[in-house]
Amino acid sequence: MQQFGFNQCAHDHYLFFLWTDHGLVSLLVYVDDILLAGACVEPLQKVKAYLHHLFTIRDMGDAHYFLGLEIARKPDGIYLAQTKYILDIIADTGMKEAKSIATPFPAGLKLNSNTGDLLQAPDSYRRLIGRLLYLCFKQPDISYSVQQLSQYLNHPCDTHWNAALHVVRYLKGCPTLGLFFPAANTLDLHDYCDADCASCFDTRRSLTGFCIFLGKALFSWKMKKQSTVSRSSTEVEYRSLAATVCELR
């Protein structure tokens, strides 16, 4: 791809960019699956012809489904969802008959390492959290829940498992929820950040959460634990703001 003129993304080595006279062309590759995106068909056809010259490829046409991601193209924009992926999670966890709930995490629950009895089958917990981590690709509303639950993969307890099932019950109530990227949009950046001071009982470190909009389109978000223990709530907020600014750069 670099020989063709693409530049590899520094943050995601599976993503490549190419600037052409017709605008930006993006290429995402995962093993033998490739997703091409651009504002004009002509440069996309040239990339596909180049790849077909090197390898035998199969052109699947307009993208509708890619690695569990459902893509719906409309005149007013593009809608991304993972409905089938969510329904598979619900079925595999045996929650098809469970009642849905309105919140992605139990209200007031603070997890720690010694919050219950160790699970006898921890692999089920690890597999579920792994699937939820992939779901965070387009589901910012569960970012906090998954960040909390992913800290206890080594020694999960029954309380962690119940909290994970709580997330599944939440997803059961909104399986079609997704992201919409409008065709008519501005290039104005808006970012929002917040912090939860000393919220981790095990390390006393704080959490930082932020989301970034391009116009009306949400395109970046993260929930992570701060790298050091802060001495005041003011320091926590400044660190959260700094993390958001670094993401914008």
TrEMBL record:
SUPFAM superfamilies per UniProt: DNA/RNA polymerases (SSF56672)
Domain Reverse transcriptase Ty1/copia-type as annotated: residue spans: 2-105
InterPro entries to which the protein is assigned, alphabetical: DNA/RNA_pol_sf (IPR043502), RVT_2 (IPR013103)
Origin superkingdom: Eukaryota
Protein name per Swiss-Prot or TrEMBL: Uncharacterized protein LOC110012416
Gene behind this protein: LOC110012416
